Amino acid sequence: MDLSYSAEYEQFRNQVRQFLKENWRPEDADGGPPPESQAAMMGAVIRTDERATQFRLKAIERGYLYRHVPKQYGGGEQPANALQAQIIADEFRKVKAPHEVMGQGPSMLVPTLVEHGTEEQKQFFVRDTLLGKILWCQGYSEPGSGSDLASLRTRGVLDGDHWVINGQKIWTSNADTAHWMFCLVRTEPDAPKHEGISYILVDMKTPGLDVRPLRQMTGEADFNEVFFDNVRVPASNLVGKRGLGWIVSRSTLKHERALIGGSMIHRRTFDGLMMLAQAVNLRGEPASKNKVIRNRMVEIESKLLALEYNQYRLLTTGARGEDPGLAGMVTKLYGTQLNYDIGRLAMDILADRGLMAPGEGSAPAMGMFVTAYMWSLGVLIAGGTANIQRNVIGERGLGLPRDAATKR
Amino acid sequence: MDFGLSADQLMLKDTIKRFLDKQCPTTRVRAVMESDTGHDPKLWQELVDLGVAGLIVPAAQGGAGLELLDLALAAEELGHACCPGPFLGSALATIALVEGADAAQRERWLPKIAGGEILATIAIGEDDSRWDPATFTTQVRGGKLSGSKPLVPYASSADVMIVAAHDEHGPGFWLVERGAPGIEVNPLKLVDMTRRVESMSFRDTPATALGGSRTALQRTIDAGCILVAADAHGGSRRCLNMAVEYAMQREQFGQKIGAFQAVKHQLANLASEIEPALSLYWYAAHAFDHIKDQSERHAAIVKAHMTDLFDRVTRDTTELHGGIGFTWEFDLHLWFRRAVFDRGFLGEANYHRERAATLAGW
User: Fold this and answer.
1) Could you tell me how many CB contacts below 8 A there are between chain A and chain B?
2) Alpha helix positions (H), A107-155
3) What is the mean pLDDT of each run of 10 residues along chain A (408 residues)?
4) Chain A partners of B69 at a C-beta cutoff of 8 Å?
5) What does the pLDDT look like over B69-82, one tens digit per residue?
6) What does the alpha-carbon distance between residue A66 and residue B147 come to, in Å, rounded to a whole number?
7) Which residues of A are known to be catalytic?
8) What is the CA radius of gyration of chain A?
9) What is residue B130's predicted lDDT score, i.e. its pLDDT?
């Protein structure tokens, strides 16, 4: 075991630092939202101003960003190397330089197009998506479908050289700001449920498409419902083969991406929790001096450390080209629980000050923790509920028999 | 940057595992634990021959000269097998000697321990002390040791014991040899039948100072916490594997119980806790040798976290087995009992969490 980086990697780190020194002035880092903000915690911060774009283009040219995307479509095109990717992420974060544009366009659509798209589709969409010039939303979820995604009912019928789409999508983040949607549509109504779905790109300005905000339990509207009423989409917007959209949608990120930064958000919220515990008085002393609170703080920190060191382990298995097995499969469920543990302890530290809605009251950072506590319920559900994660771990990780209801 | 086991470490772990799979099935575990001494000298010598007693003994004294992580890997496999015997006491005495003894003492004792000629053990905790060296009442005056140690592993079988005590300079370690005058040993019946612990008292027993530094004492406790955590991890993994195996065989209502979500989810929850915890004990063991300013706090954290988890794993997996899981004949309770030991020995979880909070300056 060796937790230092080899000379070869330290040299790589120096190159990255030198690049940042030459191309990113500290004063350029100003203007982004504070890292403690809700938007930053949810990973929704995308800086796409001209300065950021110019910087990103140089970083892509050097192979520091979008390393899994071919150069001809606007990527950095480098062999997978989890350690280099980690070094880049670390160094960029230190000086607050723009990293890859986040969101479903770069993370989900781009790998799909690179693998299954036509040459025209790749040329038209990939580069601008990577630079944040085309914003995407994802049209998978439908009312009533839940985790049984393939039960979706939005229909597409071919009429000449256009698909005519009717139906409804739900839980669509950013549908109100996105330029395009990538969605799954049932195009072969008589085929078995997984074989009759196509992957289609829809311009959000197409007539017949209606976006309505969906208010969630926090009181805010971070999602939308999207209604399709005879929406006509050129047939050339189909990605991959007709009826094979289920397989097309399975294209995911290259391995190295999934490894980076998985526990960073939790470290940040834990640090916030620590500050809260030191700032808030409970019965005449800082909460951090209260025996019960201290005990729970250490319990939570133990889980956080386990997750961080598990991340080191994943980096190592990635670098060695080994299968991470269960260690990679459990991080989402584990993180969900950790997220809740942190939120709940924050609420206990706030005590009766936690009764107030975000924005009220005088306790430090109070609005942030109440909101984060409510969001821990969203995280529990997003991307497949925790129960679905448990099925995946049980079936794929431990080799338990499939649920009778989902056999096919 | 390499946070993983080396080829040598994987081989070491595999060698010990294969030996224990073959030579230490639960039939043998039961035979040893039901014997008078709870110690099978043949089994112990076989482990010594594999190098287990000498892993961290320097090469100059006939050992392998490896690190605590290597020793912890062995502890994990012993926990996985629920292997009975004097490993823990021997390992802690060895660490105390490596950390605190002078050259002559090392030369005298370590080669014999590594080769299995003698058995060493450790006497640290005291009543009401919660294993905090500052509160120990055992005293050394003029080379004579007096006091009580209620929990000494394999005291009757040991040839030499390392005893934590105070003299006018503060807490440290002293070495007492078997048969010295003033020693009284009383056997105890433990929940964990795979590890024997006896209560001892000393009255004016001749003792040799071992370095006497407080550092060696705390380092030994830290190492013990990490080894116990590794044992708990091995036990947790074994119980999970047993439950998964059972869920794939046992049928109820016309299907394997592993297909029921309630069963699947309980197992998935355990797996998702056990898997990341592995990295926590690796890190703590690595820190013990390489990141010393973090090692005491990590030892406290890992002891609390992993023995708590072991307790929960034994509980949930027993439930998953239904009635059979509650029988004497079925093996699961061997690990449940071991979890009770791992949680209590060297101080319970709340004590270590409070210590971790204090060490962080909270």
Assistant:
1) 163
2) 110-116, 119-130
3) 92 97 81 47 60 94 95 94 89 88 89 95 97 94 90 96 98 94 97 95 98 92 95 98 93 60 81 92 94 97 97 90 91 93 94 84 76 89 89 95 68
4) 1
5) 999 999 999 999 99
6) 67
7) 256
8) 23
9) 85
State how far the alpha carbon of A188 is from the alpha carbons of A156, A170, A185, A243, B351, in Å. 8, 22, 9, 6, 63
- A25 residue type, one letter: R
The maximal CA–CA distance of chain B, rounded, in angstroms, is 74
Q: Is B252 an interface residue toward A (CB < 8 Å)?
A: no
Distances (CA, A) of A140 to A154, A180, B134, B218: 10, 14, 62, 57
Q: Do A302 and B255 touch (CB under 8 A)?
A: no
- Report the amino acid identity of residue B247: A
Q: What is the 3-state secondary structure (H, E, C) of chain B?
A: CECCCCHHHHHHHHHHHHHHHHHCCHHHHHHHHCCCCCCCHHHHHHHHHCCHHHCCCCHHHCCCCCCHHHHHHHHHHHHHHCCCCCHHHHHHHHHHHHHHCCHHHHHHHHHHHHHCCCCEEEECCCCCCCCCHHHCCCEEECCEEEEEEEEEECCCCCCEEEEEEEECCEEEEEEEECCCCCEEEEECCCCCCCCCEEEEEEEEEECEEECCCHHHHHHHHHHHHHHHHHHHHHHHHHHHHHHHHHHHHCEECCEEHHHCHHHHHHHHHHHHHHHHHHHHHHHHHHHHHHCHHHHHHHHHHHHHHHHHHHHHHHHHHHHHCHHHHHCCCCCHHHHHHHHHHHHHCCCCHHHHHHHHHHHCCC
Average the pLDDT over B2-27 and give the result. 97
ipTM (interface pTM): 0.96
Stretch 279-298 of chain A: residues touching chain B, C-beta under 8 Å:
288-289, 291, 294-295, 297-298
Residue A103 DSSP label: S
Q: Is residue B249 a contact partner of residue B208, using CB atoms and an 8 Å limit?
A: no
- What pLDDT score does A258 carry? 56
DSSP SS3 for A208: coil
pLDDT in tens, A7-44: 999 999 999 999 999 999 877 776 554 444 444 444 44
Backbone φ and ψ of A243, nearest 5°: 85, -10
Q: Which letter does DSSP use for residue A33 in this model? A: P
For residue B256, give the nearest of A317, A337, A401 by CB distance: A401
Q: Which of A59, A44, A50 is nearest to A99 (CA)?
A: A59
Predicted local distance difference test score (pLDDT) of residue A42: 41
